[in-house]
Amino acid sequence: MSPKPLIIGHRGASATAPENTMAAFHQALNSGADGVEFDVRLTRDGVPIVIHDDNLKRTGSRPGPVADLSYTEIRQVDVGSWFNRTQQASQTDFSAERIPSLDEVLELFESNHAILYLEMKSDPLQREQLARVCCDHLKQSPVKHRVVIECFDLNGIAVVKAIDPSIKTAALFEPRLMTAPQLTSGRRLVEQALTVGAEEIALHYRLASKSVVATARAAGLRVVVWTVNNTEWIRRATAMEISALITNDPVMMVQQRRALSSVQNNS
């Protein structure tokens, strides 16, 4: 039986390695995390790549939108050196890290049993193209059954389900995207998730109250909470029967889960 709650590395082990890089994904796996979360966008020539921002200013020290660059151009960008200059960096030199393609990440996970939360980063104009490309690449991958596609653009989830109903999906919610107070009610969030065919609901931790979680679970939705870096969430998630926690520091969270499990087993 899998330990509860599942620990998912946010953009990999992004507290100790540059986010959304192969180094971050390897570190998350080595920490004992149950999976990783990562972001996917398209290059100018339609290649799905793993990056959060729509530009390279923060992680690549380069101006201009990601969508304006070809895959060949993207592969030249160093997305590790910025992390070397942060306080979180260890003695490891990450300057060789490049933006991985979706296929590279999927291939990495062929040799393990980890879960992958693939967040589609799309605007309405790119919604159908990105959804179709992601579905096409998953169709060719043996890890497809372990992938959950998530998106703030719930219409994107509906597109994925229309293309391939067998792909698992999660509806993403966070407070700053809510346009009215009533939209944060558990009932309303659950309705939106179910309407687009999602099997899971991924809540920002500020939305993950007992009532919202209970409403989602009663409707048959698995509940995922992000981004939590406080170990107290292990106890809270266990009590509320939250399925998974997405964290920047999977090492810390896995260690705390193991410690609590040991205490419970010895009591």
Q: Would you write up a description of this structure?
A:
The protein is an alpha/beta fold. It has one domain: Phosphatidylinositol (PI) phosphodiesterase (TIM Barrel). It has 11 helices and 11 strands. It has helices at 22-30, 57-60, 71-74, 81-84, 102-108, 127-139, 154-163, 186-195, 210-218, 232-240, 250-266, and strands spanning 6-10, 35-42, 48-50, 55-56, 62-65, 115-120, 147-151, 168-173, 200-204, 222-226, 244-247. It has an 8-stranded parallel barrel, surrounded by 7 helices. It has a two-stranded antiparallel sheet with strand order 4-5. α8 (186-195) links the parallel β8 (168-173) and β9 (200-204). It is globular. The two termini are 20 Å apart. The mean pLDDT is 94.
Spatial sequence of strands, sheet with the most strands: 1-2-6-7-8-9-10-11
Radius of gyration: 18 Å
CATH superfamily: Phosphatidylinositol (PI) phosphodiesterase
* Beta-strand segment tally: 11
The CATH topology is TIM Barrel
Q: Residue ranges: pLDDT <50 for 5 or more in a row?
A: none
β-sheet strand percentage:
15-25%
Number of helices: 11
Helix and strand pattern? EHEEEHEHHHEHEHEHEHEHEH
CATH architecture: Alpha-Beta Barrel
Report the span from N to C terminus. 20 Å
The 3D shape can be described as globular
* Number of structural domains: 1
Q: Structural class, from secondary structure content?
A: alpha/beta
The main sheet comes to: 8 strands, parallel, barrel
Determine the mean pLDDT: 94
Q: Give the C-level CATH assignment.
A: Alpha Beta
Which percent bin holds the helix content? 25-40%
